[in-house]
Amino acid sequence: MPITAFLDIHVKPESLAEASEVIHDTLLATRAFDGCLGVDVLVDTEDPTHFVLVEKWISLEHDTAYRTYRAGPGKSSLGAILSGKPVLTKFETATDI
């Protein structure tokens, strides 16, 4: 079953100028990863250091494989520009509502 993952991040104010490039470079691999259906990047209208990445995955297994990849050989430079720990929330589409 497809899932949607929301990755809520805050960038250090002093890293804001480079944030677009770092996020773009990180998402090249994310979007190319097996099972990724797409990623949208949302920017808070009142706080330009606050981003939410909306990721669509074919399945929870594909998302889990991606998270494992990012924790190991696919570690990105995104963590270096964050002001705190990202918050990841995953959702399944309700089909019976």
Provide an overview of this structure.
The chain has 97 residues and is of the alpha+beta class. It has 2 helices and 4 strands. The longest helix has 17 residues, at 16-32. It has a single domain (3-92), classed as Alpha-Beta Plaits, CATH 3.30.70.100. Strands 2-3-1-4 form a 4-stranded antiparallel β-sheet. The model has no long low-confidence stretch (mean pLDDT 95). The protein is globular and about 45 Å long. Residues 3-97 form the ABM domain. One of its GO terms (molecular function) is monooxygenase activity. Keywords: Monooxygenase, Oxidoreductase. It comes from Cryobacterium suzukii.
**Alpha carbon gyration radius:** 14 Å
- Strand order across the largest sheet: 2-3-1-4
Total beta strand runs: 4
Question: Which regions are unreliable across 5 or more consecutive residues at pLDDT < 50?
Answer: none
Content-based structural category: alpha+beta
In DSSP terms (H or I, runs of 4 or more residues), the helix count works out at: 2
In N-to-C order, the SSE pattern is EHEEHE
The separation of the N and C termini measures: 16 Å
Task: Tell me the name of the CATH class.
Answer: Alpha Beta
- Helix share, percent: 25-40%
Mean of the pLDDT scores? 95
Residue share in β-strands: 25-35%
Shape: globular
Kindly identify the CATH topology. Alpha-Beta Plaits
* Count of the domains: 1
CATH architecture: 2-Layer Sandwich
Pfam family, one: ABM
Protein name: Antibiotic biosynthesis monooxygenase
Domain ABM: 3-97
GO molecular function, one term: monooxygenase activity
